[in-house]
Amino acid sequence: MMMVWLARYAVLRLLPRSGNGHGIMTARYGGLRLTLDWLASEHVPLREVLVREEYWLDRSWLPSAGDTVVDVGANAGIFTVASADLVGPTGRVVAFEPNSVVLGRLRANVRQNGFSDRVTVLPVAIADHAGRGTVRNETGNSTIARVHLLEPDETARGEAVSVETLDEALASAGVKDVDLLKVDVEGLELAVLDAGTATLARSRRVVVEVGGAEDAGRIEALFRDAGLTRITRRSAGPDSGAMIVFADRPDAA
User: What superfamily does domain 55-248 belong to in CATH?
Assistant: First the structure.
């Protein structure tokens, strides 16, 4: 199936982009029905999550039935629906995605896989303070769109979004303990976790994609302060060139 998708993408990328959504295709992979924009490189998270399984340190990191998973930076929902499939109807997934370009596909992927009973989609950005922001997507690649945090007197240019802290957003959603927290927000990872210390203290496992070693070191310090002292770094796949930091507790099952 992956080879069919790759062949289709090779053809699609040669065509000029138009307003009719010709880059958007729905297909099945790994038992999941996924709608992605191939011209916007949304197949990259598919390879990262489902093919190479980069966000699981090993098989023991896969969510189990009844688990609570939080996905900060859900994009079109590959990690969200993969987790929802694993946690089952007794589990819960909370997905944060402020980018309206991919939000419709995220919701469609949740709905068409029958996971609306266990997934909460929140269209807000997460950072170190509540306020306002804009989504900036200068390249047209929705997988690397960035959130710019606005100063109180700054005028929004581009798509305006609400910004909340992770601790406040999860409290409002009624989430307490977290079995797996995943963060991938194109450079705002440290800001997310700086105001997410209460969440870290209640998380069993955390996985973060980080662009640089400096941020990784500061994030690891936050992990240790929260008792997440088993820390592992490894390189992400060739699609990103980033690194992935995993942390869990010494007594994590």
Answer: Vaccinia Virus protein VP39 (3.40.50.150)
